[in-house]
Automatic annotation (TrEMBL), chain A:
The chain crosses the membrane at residues 6-28, 40-59, 87-107, 119-136, 142-161, 173-194, 214-232, 252-271, 291-312, 319-338, 350-371, 392-411, 417-444, 474-492. GO terms for cellular component: membrane. Signal peptide: none annotated. It comes from the Archaea. It holds the Pfam family Proton_antipo_M. GO terms for molecular function: NADH dehydrogenase (ubiquinone) activity. Keywords: Membrane, Transmembrane, Transmembrane helix. Residues 136-434 form the NADH:quinone oxidoreductase/Mrp antiporter transmembrane domain. It is found in: Membrane. GO terms for biological process: ATP synthesis coupled electron transport. This is NAD(P)H-quinone oxidoreductase subunit 2. The keyword Cytoplasm does not apply. It comes from Natronorubrum sulfidifaciens JCM 14089.
From TrEMBL, chain B:
GO terms for biological process: ATP synthesis coupled electron transport; electron transport coupled proton transport. It comes from Natronorubrum sulfidifaciens JCM 14089. The chain crosses the membrane at residues 75-102, 114-132, 138-155, 167-189, 224-246, 258-276, 288-309, 316-335, 347-365, 385-403, 423-446, 467-486. GO terms for molecular function: NADH dehydrogenase (ubiquinone) activity; NADH dehydrogenase activity; ubiquinone binding. NCBIfam families: NDH_I_M. This is Proton-translocating NADH-quinone oxidoreductase subunit M. Belongs to the complex I subunit 4 family. It is found in: Membrane. It is a multi-pass membrane protein.
């Protein structure tokens, strides 16, 4: 297919479309600042993200990033520091999916809300940043993309200006974000100091050629600080504690956006930096430590903290926030396994998990958005007996919860299973410990996920609620997410293939 | 494609019913459920398979498509039927239709969701019996749990929440144990398998077994996996001491859920034991024959004793299921043609009989709103037909000749007597004593509830049961008698599929 008779910069189209949509929304806002034309605004944002999704899927299937010898088009690097390959496209797809779902769901969530155009353009700008994160392959572009994704997110969390929780959450998110950005930049400067390069491939070349000999501790410290930056963006330990507050205070669609898309974007830079810049063996020789050990520890700690904390929550949104930390721990297994043979299978499994997570977790948060729209309350008890009034939405919630828990017959089962077997088949002591932690935590997670199922389906409502309406946008987004969570069970083959191929290419 | 059609009809039917108005959901679900009945009966007549599905037998209605290829293993959509699974599929479809019709009276809340879930269970049960790829099988296996949990939890009795969560936790933990063990086994088999297709794994097991995994020697691994899988399935069956979830689940479950639970869900456990433990691990079956036979006999006797102590009709029937499943385990461990064949026959037979019993108890409960033996007497006076069927079902349970229960139990005893393991005749004689206790508690309960002068503690007017409660019971009774008179209808295809197991894969 003649994709790249197009100019090379068009390879970045998935991100550019997001950016153009954001600008279009700005223009609209400057013409009509107080507009509440929800259909137009939400429609533009949804159309933009769907277009981005379509282009990313097209490029991915047309063979961008696959080796030229197999008839693919090879990686395309339109600008020094931004590369479009299978890994980038895969995560651009994840980001676009979540953005589209969030845009559609926000249509109802923002009824009677001021600053609608700003809201959508900030969402699109953040999505642009996340798409860029997927493509960035230099520490500078990574940092810029990271900030482009982060700054709109701070504003979005705090966008309910009259709501104390929202503002407080925005402030917390911002302060910790600023701190971790500082740490991240410091890490970049240390890596630069040790190797003299910012471009990931050059860093690797210097390390392998021995050009950084004698700067091992400097580099080690730099890597540690970079890990801190990723941990913040992916809501992993030790920088996870902002997540419950930010997700709880933020408007629920924004919680969905941050916990799914932002997390995935955080993981793609982690995958790219650690596969491209720091070759395991050479780096270990230099700094005297295998950096995958750090991820083994982080994975176990993160999933354990997330799941144990989630099990003790009474507030549904906080439970989902902690569960999101737990899932970051599962995805970290992909990084923990990178040193071993078969690491590409585990990294691929982590990528699959993030894609499935994009549907099931977004859907779960959107159900919370629906509950907020109905004004039923925040705790498990407040959700009691919802299924009698809203059977379809609750059926979707059952799908999300059991899929998050990794129970068949939903797509979450596959990705968790592949993570598990990937870790087992590597067979090192560290990976067996990780696999054991995964099983224990999954079993525990079933407790609190099924608690929500039990609340909506089995318990009797505490008080009579009025009739519940069926907001079109939220329902559409939730049903699409649920259908995809089920459909991916059957159609998991292509995703598994795409993810493992991308991981293998990144590791090659 | 016939199996796919069967599953698809039930799945689509479930979705349609789920969104249909409550008023018509029951009738609609029943009409939809008749399609799988007809289809499965057609499969029954058109069955052309032979041998065992896992042991190079020729499969009927086979289809296989690549699903996911990852690393060294491929996962496929792989379904097919042999003489063991086909009767169970027919049992599932007929019992589902009967269960749906029998819920018209008791279910009066959120009907469309109820019937949607019942059809969803049916689809997955068919899948469990037809799947020949481990993953496909496991997905169906687990997918049965969620709707059954909801059926008990939403439409159950007063302690429904406790019973539902107990059911879910017990069976789910058991599944995890079994799943982990089986994955370890497949990894231990190393290069000799490249997929999760059960026939391939069975062949590899019979041709030498695993090399070892995670530091365990091959033989140790095999034994560990055998025991773990046995325990995993034992919870589902259930055998003593893993049976405590069953009476709770049954007593709280609405009648149709009990019918499916006792009729088909318990058979998932024994079916899986037969397919996995007793087909893939002939060596371990021999090694552990005595302890397993002891568990079987204890289940038979202890289950029956527990039933003897109950005053709740539903609990009596529930505990007697534990006892009946003990016979199935005894037949399996006998490892003779009559033992294993009889056990399979008993799975089908017990499915129909226990389904019938639960329906009959349900009909009485619908009218009296009590199930306590002490609360009523002389019910035969007010609802002669329903009570007549209850009595017939009870005799089926006791093993009256010319009913299917007799043939199942007789062949099991016959087979177990010939078994090779130590003290087989002793174990068999002990188990046979269970029959006496069964007759004891059933007759005792019947005598107090249905005969004598009419009396009822609760304040309800009892009249004849409606026709739509009676019809499905008559159908089941007809099948029970048919299988009792002409057991070869299914016994021939069962033994045809069982023989290769006993000869270790030789045709």
């Amino acid at each position: 297919m003649a994709v790249f008779q197009l100019p090379e910069w068009m390879a970045l189209a998935p991100a550019l479309i997001m950016a153009v949509t954001a600008l279009a929304l700005f223009v609209f806002d400057s013409i009509s600042p107080r507009s509440t034309n929800r259909s137009l605004l939400a429609g533009t944002a949804a159309a933009g993200s769907l277009a981005s999704l379509a282009v990313a899927v097209w490029f991915s299937t047309a063979g961008v990033g696959t080796p030229t010898i197999d008839g693919g088009l090879g990686e395309i690097e339109p600008i020094h520091g931004l590369v479009v390959d299978q890994l980038a496209l895969y995560f651009m797809i994840v980001v676009a999916i979540v953005t589209a779902l969030v845009a559609v769901a926000s249509y109802d969530y923002l009824v009677d809300h001021a600053y609608q155009a700003e809201y959508y353009s900030l969402v699109m700008l953040a999505a642009t940043g996340m798409s860029m994160m997927a493509a960035a392959n230099s520490l500078v572009t990574i940092f810029i993309a990271l900030e482009l994704a982060s700054l709109p997110s701070y504003a979005l969390v705090a966008i309910l200006k009259d709501n104390r929780g929202s503002v407080e959450a925005g402030l917390k998110y911002f302060l910790i974000g600023a701190l971790s950005s500082a740490i991240f930049v410091y890490g970049i400067s240390l890596v630069y100091g040790a190797t003299g390069h910012l471009y990931l491939a050059d860093i690797a070349a210097v390390i392998e050629a021995g050009g950084a000999d004698g700067y091992g501790s400097l580099l080690g410290l730099g890597i540690l600080m970079l890990i801190g930056g990723f941990a913040y963006k992916t809501a992993s330990a030790p920088f996870h504690f902002w997540a419950p507050d930010a997700y709880e205070g933020a408007p629920a669609p924004i919680s969905a956006f941050l916990s799914s898309a932002s997390k995935a974007a955080g993981f793609v830079i982690a995958f790219r930096v650690f596969t491209e810049a720091f070759p395991v063996a050479a780096t270990q020789e230099l700094i005297g430590l295998d950096w995958t050990i750090a991820f083994v520890i982080l994975a176990i700690v993160t999933m354990t903290i997330g799941n144990f904390a989630a099990a003790t929550q009474n507030n549904v949104k906080r439970m989902l926030a902690y569960s999101s930390i737990g899932h970051a721990g599962y995805a970290l297994i992909g990084l923990a396994a990178l040193s071993a043979d078969g690491g590409e299978l585990v990294m691929g499994a982590a990528m699959m998990h993030l894609l499935v997570y994009g549907f099931m977790n977004t859907g779960a948060f959107l159900f919370v958005a629906l509950a907020e729209h109905w004004d039923v309350g925040r705790t498990f008890e407040d959700y009691n007996g919802l299924s009698a009034q809203a059977p379809v939405a609750c059926a979707a919630l059952v799908v999300f919860m059991f899929s998050l828990a990794g129970v068949p017959p939903f797509a979450g089962f596959w990705s968790k299973y592949f993570l598990f077997t990937g870790a087992i088949s590597i067979g090192s002591t560290a990976m067996l410990a990780v696999a054991a932690a995964l099983v224990v935590n999954s079993a525990l997670s079933l407790y609190y996920y099924s608690r929500l199922v039990k609340a909506v389906l089995i318990e009797d409502p505490l008080a009579d609620r009025g009739a519940l309406d069926q907001p079109t946008g939220l329902y559409a987004a939730i049903i699409v997410a649920a259908v995809m969570t089920v459909a991916l069970l059957a159609g998991f083959g292509p995703i598994a293939e795409a993810a493992t191929d991308a991981a293998a290419a990144a590791l090659a | 494609m016939m199996i796919e059609a069967l599953i698809a009809v039930a799945l689509v039917g479930a979705l349609v019913t789920f969104v249909a108005p409550n008023r018509i959901a029951g009738k609609l679900a029943f009409a939809i459920s008749l399609v799988p009945v007809v289809l499965s009966l057609w499969l029954f007549t058109a069955f052309d398979g032979s041998g065992n599905a896992l042991l190079e037998g020729s499969l009927a209605f086979e289809s296989q498509y690549e699903w996911i290829q990852l690393g060294e293993y491929s996962i496929s959509w792989f379904v097919g039927l042999d003489g063991i699974s086909l009767p169970l599929v027919v049992l599932t479809t007929i019992l589902t239709s009967a269960a749906i019709m029998s819920s018209w009276t008791p279910i009066d809340d959120r009907e469309s969701q109820f019937y949607g879930l019942v059809l969803f269970i049916e689809a997955n049960l068919i899948g469990v019996f037809a799947a020949l790829d481990f993953f496909l099988w496991f997905i169906f296996w687990e997918a049965v749990l969620i709707p059954m949990y909801l059926l008990i939890g939403i439409w159950g009795g007063p302690r429904r929440k406790y019973a539902a969560i107990k059911f879910f936790v017990y069976t789910n933990v058991a599944s995890l144990v079994m799943f982990g063990a089986f994955i370890a086994l497949v990894f231990g088999l190393g290069d000799s398998v490249t997929s999760f297709a059960l026939p391939e794994i069975a062949t590899a097991m019979l041709n030498g077994g695993p090399d070892g995994f995670l530091g365990l020697e091959g033989t140790t691994l095999t034994s560990v996996v055998f025991i773990a899988m046995f325990l995993g399935f034992a919870v589902k069956v259930p055998v003593v001491p893993f049976h405590t979830w069953l009476p709770d689940a049954h007593v709280e479950a609405p009648t149709p859920a009990s019918v499916l639970l006792a009729g088909v869900l318990l058979k998932m456990g024994t079916y899986a034991l037969l397919r996995f433990n007793f087909t893939m691990f002939p060596g371990q079956v021999e090694t552990y024959a005595v302890p397993i036979a002891a568990i079987a006999v204890i289940s038979v006797i202890y289950g029956a004793m527990l039933a003897l102590a109950q005053t709740d009709l539903k609990r009596i029937v529930a505990y007697s299921s534990v006892s009946s499943m003990g016979y199935v385990i005894l037949g399996l461990i006998a490892y003779t043609q009559f033992g294993v064949g009889g056990a399979t026959f008993q799975m089908v037979s017990h499915g129909f009989i226990s389904g019938l019993m639960f329906m009959a108890v349900g009909v009485i409960y619908n009218a009296t709103h009590t199930r306590l033996v002490t609360d009523m007497s002389g019910m035969a006076d007010r609802m002669p037909i329903a009570v007549g069927i209850l009595i017939a079902g009870a005799f089926g349970y006791m093993g009256l000749p010319l009913m299917s229960g007799f043939y199942g139990e007789f062949t099991i005893f016959f087979g177990a007597f010939q078994a090779d393991f130590a003290y087989a005749p002793l174990f068999t004689s002990l188990a046979m004593f269970g029959i006496v206790i069964v007759a004891g508690y059933l007759l005792f309960a019947l005598q107090r509830t249905v005969f004598g002068p009419y009396e009822l503690e609760t304040d309800y007017e009892v009249g004849r049961a409606p026709l739509h409660d009676i019809v499905p019971m008559f159908v089941l009774l007809g099948i029970i008698i048919l299988l009792g008179v002409a057991p070869d209808l299914i016994f021939e295809m069962i033994t045809d599929a069982v023989d290769p197991i006993l000869s270790g894969g030789e045709q």
